[in-house]
């Protein structure tokens, strides 16, 4: 992710001493997707689509924008 409002030369989070699990600032794919949608100017909590007679959310109820990664 170069440009688009993301910090330059930036590493986010830290793993444990074995590199097995996330120790500090764990994030998920849902967080990453919510951040990308935020950078595109879309609100991931209100983004819905109509399917089989129901309004469904694209991001379900998961995902938070990673504010520390934004410039």
Summarize the structure.
This protein has 71 residues and is α+β, with helices and mostly antiparallel strands. It has one helix spanning 29-39; strands at residues 14-15, 22-24, 48-51, 54-57. 7% of the residues are buried.
Topology of this protein?
Elements: E1 14-15, E2 22-24, H1 29-39, E3 48-51, E4 54-57
Antiparallel strand pairs: 1-2, 3-4
InterPro entries: DUF1501
Organism: Gimesia algae
Pfam family, one: DUF1501
Describe this protein's structure.
The protein has one helix and four strands. By secondary structure, the protein is of the alpha+beta class. It has one domain. A two-stranded antiparallel ribbon has the order 1-2. The chain has a two-stranded antiparallel sheet with strand order 3-4. A hairpin with a 2-residue loop joins β3 (48-51) and β4 (54-57). The model has no long low-confidence stretch (mean pLDDT 83). This is Sulfatase. Pfam families: DUF1501.
């Amino acid at each position: 992710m170069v440009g688009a409002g993301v910090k330059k030369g930036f590493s986010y989070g830290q793993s444990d001493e074995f590199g097995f699990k996330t120790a500090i600032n764990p994030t998920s794919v849902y967080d990453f997707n919510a951040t990308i949608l935020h950078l595109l100017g879309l609100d991931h909590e209100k983004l819905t689509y109509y399917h089989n007679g129901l309004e469904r959310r694209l991001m379900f109820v998961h995902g938070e924008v990673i504010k520390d990664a934004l410039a």
